[in-house]
Amino acid sequence: MRLNISYKKYLFLYLLIVSFTGVIRVNAQNFNQDLQKLQLAYKLVSTFYVDSVDNEKLVEDAIVGMLKNLDPHSEYLSKEEVKKLNEPLDGGFEGVGVQFNIMDDTLMVVSPISGGPSEKVGILAGDRIIFIDDENVAGIGLTNSGVKDRLKGKKGTKVKLKILRKGYSKLLDFTVERDKIPIYSVEATYMATKDVGYVKINQFSATTHKEFETALKTLNSQGMKNLILDLRGNPGGYLKAAIDVVDEFLEEDKVIVYTEGLTNPRREYRSSNGGLFKTGKVVVLINEGSASASEIVSGAVQDWDRGIILGRRSFGKGLVQRPLNLQDGSMIKLTIAKYYTPSGRCIQKPYDKGADAYRKEIYTRDILHSEDSVAADLPTYQTRTSNRLVYGGGGIKPDIFIAADTSGYSDYYRDIVALGVLNRFVLAYLDESRDMLSIKYDSYDEFLKKYEVGENMINQLVEEAKKEKITSDTKGLEVSLHLLKTQIKALIARNLWGVSEYFQTINPISEEFNKAIEVLSSEKSYTGLLN
């Protein structure tokens, strides 16, 4: 029988999993029976089903079903999904290099990416892109995905843009040659105090370690003695990136993490003799959104008593996936091992109630009123230096618990943010006031000290919210006023300077951040927690 492409894919998958996992040890008779069963089911459906069948989708659905009952992280990805997945982890994509927003049904440049092709040809923040390759894109209901489809492309290809710029009566013509656009995983780097540095990592990609090295060198040159490493909301990424980040903190030949699985013997990853920050005090910020590679970092720092973990219990993902490429560009991410912290704990939380319950588990935690302690019957371990008690089986439990801060939260604030009113309001304000602000505040430090969000601006925001059918709420506004003002100022700072300035503006209202500064400022508190 001649096999079509869908069945070839199915057979390729079956052989790949069987040979990879070591199940090839089963006898040939069982193997042939399983394969014949797959073949027969496929042929019966494609031959006798009442309606026409998309054979490719039929096979893909079967693959999804095959993986569904393994664990929540083994999954099938189509060719298109693989491409989208790899862009942020590879540390870049190819395109024109602009941050954009769609405002009033018009594509607006929020800012050109520094050093990117759009900046090089003179495109500015606030420019409206009206035509892309002679196609009108204004007032047509353009979506974010539509913008990306038109502006992304292979390096070296060119795209023609017609731009409306404030102060010009005619459209301006630009030809932009697409190039590699970096995606940075170290989102913010700055000195929080005269001796405390701050670094935020949003994921662990191929470029994270190099970015982190650069950040440490910059902060060291500015007098950093202690460090806040912010991993809140970091979903993970590459194992090697996490290992290399931890390596900057530990002395030589210490276990950072080890992996082990049924067909994968124990493999240890140890620290080297290098490292840019082996002696200063460290506080790592985590929360329920910190997963996988973030837990490797925080687990190693905690287990070696190298620093304080502060915040809320991490997600609890201790499974290692290996990407297995199929012949058509699609991929299977298959769990092949578990990873263990230096004390020997696996922090993978249970998933026996199904994938849906597994993912929703973080929403059942009491993150407001208690320490969200892991269950008493979970296995306990001791840290490698001070023999402190730590837990396995449910995420990294912080040394200092900080409840989620809802003091400035209201339904009114939620609606303004969720419906995009706040972001659009700030963009519109900058569109009118960018030149004035640039002249008035020639540095971020001056802006941080002197700029204030006044009552008039808040009133304008309320009016914009009304246009979006958000009913005025005096009490809600009063509850969230300080948060809104800080958020507005931070968004302005991000657009005028960068993401580091955004966090430098917003962090002082974070309880986790302030507690980290407090702990790092007290030798007694810091050493007391570690001992």
From TrEMBL:
Keyword Lyase: no
Segments passing through the bilayer: none
Listed SUPFAM superfamilies: ClpP/crotonase, PDZ domain-like
SMART domains to which the protein is assigned, alphabetical: PDZ, TSPc
Organism: Plebeiibacterium marinum
MF terms (GO), sorted A to Z: endopeptidase activity; serine-type peptidase activity
Domain of life (superkingdom): Bacteria
Coiled coil: none
A GO CC term assigned to this protein in UniProt: outer membrane-bounded periplasmic space
UniProt xrefs under NCBIfam families: prc
Residue intervals of the PDZ domain: 94-167
Alphabetically ordered keywords of this record: Hydrolase, Protease, Serine protease
GO biological-process terms attached to the record: proteolysis; signal transduction
Segments forming domain Tail specific protease: 169-350
Family: Belongs to the peptidase S41A family.
Name of the protein this chain belongs to: S41 family peptidase
Pfam families from the UniProt entry: CtpB_N-like, PDZ_2, Peptidase_S41
